[in-house]
Amino acid sequence: MPVEALVDRCVRRGISCLAVTDHNTIAGGLAAQQIAPFKVIVGEEIKTDEGELIGLFLKEEVPRGLSPEETVERVHAQGGLVAAPHPYDRFRRSRLRAEALDRLAGQIDITEAFNCRTTLLRDSQRAEAYGRAHGHALGAGSDSHTPIEVGGAYVEMEDFDLRDPQEFLAKLREARIVGQRANPLVHVPTRLVKIVRSLKR
Question: What is the Cα–Cα distance from 108 to 72, expressed in whole angstroms?
Fold first, then answer.
């Protein structure tokens, strides 16, 4: 979605901080940071060779296709935080493989315990249990692909210094997750976009 539409939707919904995690690029986060009247965390949803991880508070893009371990190393090397997005969503082929999730349990900072686009509640419950078992902070994501989805899930937390990811992490541990599952039909536009892109190749 256009960055302007994203920022406008956040303003309308009263969102005071947004993490922008486009697939394999930080360009959207940097663009949003330039025009948003609120805090923007620059992030990236990175496709490793075993599924997706999210990097937050990034200064540089992390290349896609690396191992999960190297991806984590590159995020942490720039002071960023690593999150496991929708780790048990059985309908997502992009989720991090279970073996990698187990290997990285001690290196992940945040588990996405709730994602609006995760269809089955028990998959979210399993993600929350995983995060708690390994001492991760718990996060939530609207996983927005269209403006109407923005703010479907969020965390209520104390303010933090955008220059201090560790302060953010500490306050996230005390946050409250708010959100509701999206109508499964939200996946239709995303699927159509993927089909159109594949036809253009």
Answer: 8
What are the pLDDT digits (tens) for 80-117?
999 999 999 999 999 999 999 999 999 999 999 999 99
Q: pTM of the predicted model, to two decimals?
A: 0.90
- Contact of 186 with 117, CB cutoff 8 Å: yes
Name the DSSP class of 63: P
User: Which residues in the chain come in under a pLDDT of 70?
Assistant: 182-201
Which residue in this structure is represented by tokens 């969020």?
154
7: CATH: 3.20.20.140
**Separation between Cα atoms, residue 172 and residue 177, nearest integer Å:** 10
Q: Identify the domain containing residue 61 by its residue range.
A: 3-200
Q: How many domains does the chain have?
A: 1
